[in-house]
Amino acid sequence: MNDVTSDTPTEMPDDVRYAPSHEWARIDDDLVTVGISDFAQQSLGDVVYVELPQVGDEVGAGTEACVVESVKAAADVYAPVSGTVVAVNEMLEEAPEMVNQDPYGDGWFFKVEPTDIEELDELLDADGYEQHCESEDDED
Amino acid sequence: MAERRTALYEEHVAGKARMVPFANYAMPLNYGSQIAEHREVRGSTGMFDVSHMTITDLSGEGARGLLARVFANDVGKAAPGRAVYGVMLNESGGIIDDILLYGRGSGYRVVSNAATRDKVLDWLRVHAADFGVGVHERRDLALVAVQGPTALRTFSAATSMDVDDLGTFAVRERNGWMVARTGYTGEDGVEVALPGDQAPALWRQLADAGATPAGLAARDTLRLEAGLLLYGQDMDETTSPLESNLGWTVAWNPPERGFVGRELLARQRSQGPQRVLRGVVLAARGVIRHGQRVDTNAGDGTVTSGIFSPTLGYSIGFARVPHGATGDCLIEIRGARIPGRIVRPPFVRHGRQVFK
Predict the structure, then answer these.
(1) pTM of the predicted protein model
(2) Subunit contact B18:A8, Cβ cutoff 8 A
(3) Which of B29, B131, B206, B339 is the most buried (most CB within 10 A)?
(4) What's the ipTM?
(5) Sign, CA torsion B313/B304/B143/B70
(6) Residues B86, B88, B89, CA angle at the centre, nearest 5°?
(7) How many residue pairs bridge chain A and chain B with CB atoms within 8 Å of each other?
(8) What residues have CB less than 8 Å from B111, skipping those under 6 apart?
(9) Do A71 and B34 touch (CB under 8 A)?
(10) Distance of alpha carbon B161 from its chain centroid, rounded?
(11) Which site among B24, B308, B331, B333 would you substitute to test the A interface, given the most A Cβ atoms closer than 10 Å to its Cβ?
């Protein structure tokens, strides 16, 4: 997009790790909470449905775990780490707009009990993710 | 190549718009939430920068004859001070573009799409030569659409130009501004063509009077709810108006008027078009998208446009389906066949559901 980019600042908190496919992962009591980044929700626009995984589903790092649909587009959400889904954010059924309003808080998608916690180290930190997003902008 | 900027570019940036490339222009996709913008247009007043659209003035005594040839609707409906919607066809009866034609004291004004600019100008110029008509693109003008149930009041308050008595599809010109009671959202409102250097002041005055800026994304959901087609997506040069739910824009009388595309269109009319454009609504969760397959009682069809409808709270779209397709259908969404229903657009008019 070069000079044609949004001036809207994108939040990239330090307390989560990021996948290049725009999911974030936060470790908390041995569980990994997963959501999509502020950059991702801004790109998607208003979210209208989230098709969550089911509790008990096995997910693999980098593989499709659920789908998020905005007015504009449908996007696959990839699990940033491998493991078993132990909780899903049922609030998104009624209030999918939480993904837009609070992407790192109430807009979380699901929690995973990871099989290999070291997979988290392969994800990007906030600085790395910021550079990744800038390079994606340039490609447009 | 850098995108072109409209006269309102700085206003969009100041309004925190998400700018995207669209038909060689940098245009606002949304100013935060397309659903919120959609609701403003359905509930009060929204304003759109549509300056990327192509404005062309036709001058000379032959202009009426030129339009009788290249415009499938009746040019007579564009009497001075009147506007009419219609299509330009190629020799095969396919749609070159959909346009709004404005009748003026002297000559006509054509507003056509942004993405079709070059081919429409070429087409007009090629035929204009036969009629001695001047074809002048007006890149000096900006185009602002003010739409919503309170749009006329908002516009009058912002400009001290009274438009309450302006009838539907009526056009008024003053001091280089052309104000028409037209739009593409299914709501009341006006579209204003004005010198580009005056557009930022109008934009700010409209905002002060209560109009909310709305982007291309909201424009798309609004026009689809209103049953209005998007060129390049719902129709193109391979589809005729009869296959696009636009038969009503074709003026068959007088029978001797030989408009471009008439011959093939008349044949299609007498045989009945094999495919038609219909509305589809989704009965379950999910969103209909362009390109999805539709399984109907009369055979397979294809979704041309689909959205989540902010007004209705579920997904709606257009699909090109075999003639005779009706009732229940199945829409293939990411491998699953989701139940839907074929309906007659429009879906929403003046904020309310209108289809059965």
Answers:
(1) 0.91
(2) yes
(3) B206
(4) 0.76
(5) negative
(6) 125
(7) 58
(8) B53, B54, B55, B56, B99, B100, B102, B143, B191, B193
(9) yes
(10) 25
(11) B308
